[in-house]
Design brief:
two-stranded antiparallel ribbon, 5-stranded antiparallel β-sheet, about 120 residues, 3 helices, alpha+beta, single chain, elongated, 7 strands
């Protein structure tokens, strides 16, 4: 007969095994996608731009053209703010409105119309 200590160890092992089972099988875990690897679709109203976005520490938005995706905008910009600075080369500037996430079908339709792509 097993000692009390051995039974406690077995119960702990069973609890640990059950906690790992809740995570899923090895196959299920390998199919999961990290949030930062997913492209999402956005529209910037003030710039009339259809953008894609991807999160890597911060949120980056990108323009799509025939050469690919060119990421250029961070989520930490002062969206929509008007800035005046006589010492700067641009003197004053208004940042674009923050891009809003939209459904892919809406993005695709708008992108195609904007780029005069017939479907």
């Amino acid at each position: 007969m097993k000692g009390e200590h051995e039974i406690e160890d077995m119960l702990k092992d069973i609890e640990e095994l059950n906690s790992y089972r809740k995570l899923g099988t090895v196959e299920e875990l390998s199919k999961r996608v990290n949030e930062e690897d997913i492209l999402k679709f956005y529209y910037c109203e003030s710039e009339d731009l259809y953008l894609v976005g991807q999160r890597h520490d911060t949120m980056y938005y990108g323009k799509v053209d025939e050469l690919g995706i060119h990421f250029f905008m961070s989520r930490y910009l002062p969206w929509g703010q008007h800035v005046e600075d006589e010492r700067s080369a641009w003197k004053e500037y208004t940042y674009p409105s923050e891009p809003k996430e939209i459904y892919f079908t809406e993005w695709l339709s708008g992108f195609m119309k904007q780029n005069k792509i017939k479907f």
